[in-house]
Amino acid sequence: MSTGTAAEGGAPARAREAGALWRLAAATLDGNWEHDHTVPSRTLYPHQWSWDSAFVAVGLAHVRPDRAWRELRTLFAAQWADGRVPHIVFNPALRAGSYFPGPEFWDSARAPGAPDVATSGIVQPPVHALAAWLVHRRAPSERSRAELAWLYPRLVAWQRYLTDRRDVGGAGLASIVHPWESGLDNSPAWDPPLAAVPADAAVMRAYRRHDTAHADAAHRPTDLDYARYVALVDAYRAGGYRDDGLDGRHPFLVECPLLNTALGLAEHALAAIARETGADPGPHRERAVRITAALVDRLYDPVGGTFHPRDLRTGRLVPARTALGLMPLALPGLPARPVAALLAEACSPRFGLAARMDRPLPSHDRTAPDFEPLRYWRGPSWQNLNWLLWRGLRAHHRFDLAAGLRDSMIDLVATAGCHEYFHPDTGAGLGSPAFGWTAALLLDVLAET
């Protein structure tokens, strides 16, 4: 990919393009605002999603910081008593059946410690502390310090939920109980552990999938995958969404590189928030070091030079080489050897990172036989993964590669608009149009350009 006519026309053309993209992104966020939160899209995702809201807050900090704080407050108002932040907070104004799996499917009201508002019972990566710190840093004020003070104990409780209740492997990493908790819903990384979950695609006849009404079924998870997703929710819900004894009863338990990278990043952000609010940053720094060490010890393959999820049911690393394996590069304390190996992996033909990129960064190894350029998380390029990697490249002083990835992110929206995800070869827009985090993270990289 290249910056095309904007680059050839010099600084005035680049400024005009940046201004037009800035207005497009800001208008997209305005259009997705829903009274106290942002919906990811007006079509496929009509409720509030957890890590979407964190990414959206990062972008809102540049244009509407008051809404950024409202976004995070609304999400954390739905925090469970055990500290978990649910991956969906449902809008009660929407009619029943308008989304599947909806509130009647999750039935959170029956679970001990659930909030008054209907939510799901699972989680997503804890990128919220990083988002809160970036919102404050972009627009510092007395209001932002008060918001940090309100959020800080809730963010700490969220971290403790993951590090204590979800440390099923006992090695200092959090486990996911469902592929949806990784954020990369049907990545090839989940195929081996998911294959062990008993399910029949016929089970989906009892439900109406909402996603395939708004997107091409060939771009979405299969009915068999969805049946397994439903079976996992059934199993977790049957136990009241409790986490004690998961190793003895739950069929899907995996240590995810992305979720645990976010866990470590959150401790770094909490150290900064603690310092700003008068708390002790030391314990957060120490926990960040421990999480990073556990990631390297548990999930890094020194032979292959990348990170992999660990299936706790088998004890083995999942062999697929996906963008999940690159995400630990976002950690500033990652040791030099894994950093060098991940840079080589990212720049290899599998992912194609370069100072000047001719194709977007894919979410899965584009040389693999199961690479699918159109199917959700099995090949397409996503701006939130690009953004996390962009931050990591800068943290490790690879500003040349960071600039190439930033230009690629900008080019994707300049060519195709604020789509949910993008074709990893052509850059064509895929999934939902007017997607929240695509707009928000575009604002953040434009602000740094």
UniProtKB/TrEMBL annotation:
GO terms for biological process: oligosaccharide metabolic process; protein N-linked glycosylation. Residues 45-438 form the Mannosylglycerate hydrolase MGH1-like glycoside hydrolase domain. This is Mannosylglycerate hydrolase MGH1-like glycoside hydrolase domain-containing protein. Belongs to the glycosyl hydrolase 63 family. InterPro entries: 6-hairpin_glycosidase_sf, 6hp_glycosidase-like_sf, Glycoside_hydrolase_63, MGH1-like_GH. It comes from Micromonospora haikouensis. Keywords: Glycosidase, Hydrolase. GO terms for molecular function: Glc3Man9GlcNAc2 oligosaccharide glucosidase activity. Transmembrane segments: none annotated. Pfam families: MGH1-like_GH.
